[in-house]
Amino acid sequence: MRLCVRKGAWRAMWDDARARAPEEAVGLLVGRRGCAQAAWPLANASPHPLVHYLAEPGELLAALRRADAEGLEVCALYHSHPAGPPRPSERDRAEATWRVPYVILGLPEGRARAYLLPEGEEVEIRVEP
Ligand SMILES: [Zn+2]
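Above: the input record for the complex with zinc ion. Below: its predicted structure, written as tokens.
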């Protein structure tokens, strides 16, 4: 399995993650034909946003409706680790419910990786023009 992300969406996702540090950012990567073309940030509603994320449910629902209305698919869910590596935490695994890849942006390393969770199988990310 492979995750395709257009350069614009890739940049927007990183910009969002950096802008929200030291809190964790969260959002959706949406696109068409298996390639993400936009990053849609979602509010982090976790009471502990420095170490955890929780997509604000109302915003998430609105984003899913918008994607549906615009004929876009959810390609991945992303969140950031402002102070840690781009590896899923125990909690990331325990709370995973989506069958799309989870992209984790590790800010100190400046590197993002993607996984199927809770299994932890890594998904290759391909950034395309
Ligand atoms: Zn995490």
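Notes for the reader.
The radius of gyration is 13 Å.
Helices lie at 7-20, 57-69, 90-95.
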